[in-house]
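Lay summary. Proteins are chains of building blocks that fold into shapes, and those shapes determine what they do. In this project we predict the shape from the chain. Here is one chain we studied, written as its sequence of building blocks.
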Amino acid sequence: VELGDNIDVLQDVLDKIRKTQRNNYTSVTLNLSNYSQNQIKTMTAFCKNLYDFSFVAKYFYDKNEKRARLTLQTAPAIVNFFNGEWLEWYVFMKLLKHCYENNGLFSCLRNFNIQFANEDKYEVDVFFLLNSRIPVFIECKSGEFRSYIEKYNKMRRRLDIDKDNFLLLVFGISDEQVLGLTKMYDITFVNEKSFIPHVAS
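And here is the predicted shape, written in a compact code that computers can read:
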């Protein structure tokens, strides 16, 4: 949630970690000298949290040089988290909070598999059942999403879920893209800012 709520500031940290992981290195140095004091505070607090919860093996911040040094964990669960699983958690936790705050009746699952009678399998990122009758499927993409559109079109039809209730959340796309893509395809597109208002409606 911290990462998603502060992504404008933390995007560089996330990108640097992902690039380092892709290149099979474990050491990251963040030069923070071009950021404001508030941005540095947000970035260093996030890095400290990563260390406190063992998402990184080591963390050190040099105030004089304004450089943060991280030693990354190589465990697959941690690599997957930075590779996009953080977005699933973000969506799940924000929707959970929304449901609690609005005293809604709900059930929820994250990252589970559906298997059909013919043994076709689908993985679902986030699923909520609201008021015991309204299913909400949310698939999350923090990178390339276009090649998955037809897969999700078929999945929605096969599950017989209303278009309004089957969401493809694409991180970072504009509201204009959200509207255009939703009109063009058989699923509903949302971004990180519009998914809660959409589900609330």
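What the prediction tells us: The two ends are 22 Å apart (CA to CA).
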